[in-house]
Target: LAO/AO transport system kinase
Amino acid sequence: MSSDEDLLEALLAGEHRALARVISKIENRSPGYRDLVSELYAHTGEADVIGITGSPGAGKSTLVDKLAETYRDRGETVGVIAIDPSSPFTGGAVLGDRIRMASTVGDMDVFVRSMSARGTLGGLSTATADAVKAMDAFGKEKIIIETVGAGQNEIDIVRTADTVAVLVPPGSGDDIQTLKAGILEIADVFVVNKADRPGSDRTVQELRDMIQLGGGGIGGGGGHHSQEVIDAHDDWDGETDDEGETAGWTTPIVETVATKAEGVDDLISEFANHRTYLVDSGEHAEQVRGRYAEEIRTLLREDVHALLEDRLADRGGIDDLAESVRRGETDPYSIAGELLDPVEDCLDELETNGENG
Model:
């Protein structure tokens, strides 16, 4: 039995050290990681994956800590993936924020892993999705992905999550309008954290107004999944509309004071409501299908890119090709076509053989 097979067996047997090693292998793109991840798929699909994002200073780490603690009190196992900004010295994750996640230290059923952002959007998204699969296969019932801030990186990552909570600090005002066309569109649940501070009521009202203006989804739809605002305080209860179709998800606003664990139970209830909605409406299956489609596209892009890089090297490297363009001997479009022709020919040959077979 190979070392990777041993590692997989140990992970499936519930050994946290094996889980840590598998995630390291995934994050570092170590030799054999793809075969390892391929084996994980057959053991996934049971975990509830929650994304926590929002502007810096909104209290994400503290809230994640309290969520993990509350889930553990309920007897559920938890995995946390914290996406950290890269260290400028080592490229690794900066672990300062993890200090605030102290409530579950020593509890082996809460596995916390920091992953470095490293400034690579697609690569991080893929690594995060693969790390989620490792935790899912391990048997973690709740997997929480916490991101560093508000931006495209976070939007890409939380697509791995089934439910996305966006934290908004009180008194955000103009910040809410600034974020409107971006990260707020992906929210399944809004969380006004630090709700004991001045301005929280106004922030809740501004969010509610924005949701109402958004109609069938904030910013005109196209968010994390379909949203339909009925009342910001009503739970989704599986009702159907006049045409007999399942009504969309009501986007709730939950007020929390994470430092005191206030509102955490309410937030967990909304997560549970959303999970029920996804399953009952059929959106969860659609969500998973879309996620796998994007994974296939990403892997194809990575592999084709690697193949083309090899062909570029065979042709003397991209600098030589660029120099030939500079001298007027050719152009980028012609070079791209010449490099892709063998790939297209190979695909055509495979298709022909498949039809004849």
